[in-house]
Amino acid sequence: MGYRILTLEDIPKFLGSLEEMRNIFTDFNTLEVEEVGDGNLNYVYLVKNSKKPQETVALKQAVPYLRVVGESWPLKRERMTIEIMALQKEIELCPEHVPEVYYGSHEMSLVIMENLSSHKVLRGEIIKGKVFPNFAEHISTFMAEVLFKTSDLYLDHQTKKEMVSKYINYDLCKITEDFVFTTPYEKHETNVYNPELTEEDLNFIQQDRELKIAVAEMKYKFMNNAESLLHGDLHIGSIMVNENETYVIDPEFAFYGPMGFDVGAVIGNLLMSYFSHEQRQKLLGREPYVYRKWLLETIESVWVKFTEKFDTLWIEEQLSNPQLAWDYPQGEQHFKVLRERFITRLFSDTVGFAACKMMRRILGLAKVADIAEIEDLQERARIERMTLKLGKKMVIERDSIKSIGEVLNLAKELSPLV
Ligand code: SR1
Ligand code: MG
Fold it and tell me: How far does the centroid of ligand 2 lie from the alpha carbon of residue 231, in Å?
């Protein structure tokens, strides 16, 4: 079967041709297909048997261009091969937080998976001001399991190198290199600015010596530190939730990169939500304090729980596979110092990457609805300036900021929790 772009009309027949779908659907004549993808890259469809709605799947297909721009921006559809492989690896390592995959086709550049019909995209839910008490617990488990167990701290030397080469993701890494680390920090034609931002606001980022150097350093780290298999785009639009469960979706940007890039994506996005709710809670007719406090507590918990779980996995690995290197009287203590220094360095990376993820959402092409959909442009610009200020400070001072509490204090200095 050669590649072709599926349409709404084609999908029932296509599904009917797949052996794997016979376990799911009892009738292919009563399927209803709805296109739901609002993503930047691909098409996503939900398919349901109208007679038996519990018979349902999600189908995602990559097209040979960047969907958000159109056919004028070609993009190899082989990105779906990476997505399928990454989903399979994440399912192996953390099945409780990844949707089940029923069928994947590299040729058709598509994946058919569990329709998370009782879950919603976390960004949309946060915009509505909903609370998810288990989110920090879940996302920290996902990140610790995947980042630790795909690194050299866990895999043998050959498997790790085979993994690095298997997950080379030229095209989507280039998108990140451009849109997260390059274009937002220059006068680039693809940037999109709130018209209420002034030239001074832009130059505060685009012409500042220390900031430009710091972002270039983060870009170099992104391109050269093949530490772990990253999700690669772990913003709160790549996470689906309900009150009890959390699922990570959309790993098409997966590649071997620095662990802090994923952790920073979660933290940076939640910091932007914190700023946005200075305004959004008022629009919802609420006092901003309670919800924004939950957001800050969640950020702290994500980091604390992630590091605790990561450390536990490392200790367990040392116990089950003891390394000769630590087999001497003070070895246990010295191993502990290594772990502490590792986490200190990972924290600096996390802060630096979170900062880049924040600043790019204000000045670059791809926005976050939390801030970009604030209708009052002056109010939006006020929140954008806070985001830029915090991002700038975080990336420049990433090595001297010592704790997640310090990051939260910086956010509160810019936008008091009242
Ligand atoms: C031009 S694509 C823009 C962004 O969408 C994806 O979700 C990634 O974050 C990418 O940077
Ligand atoms: Mg995505």
Answer: 10
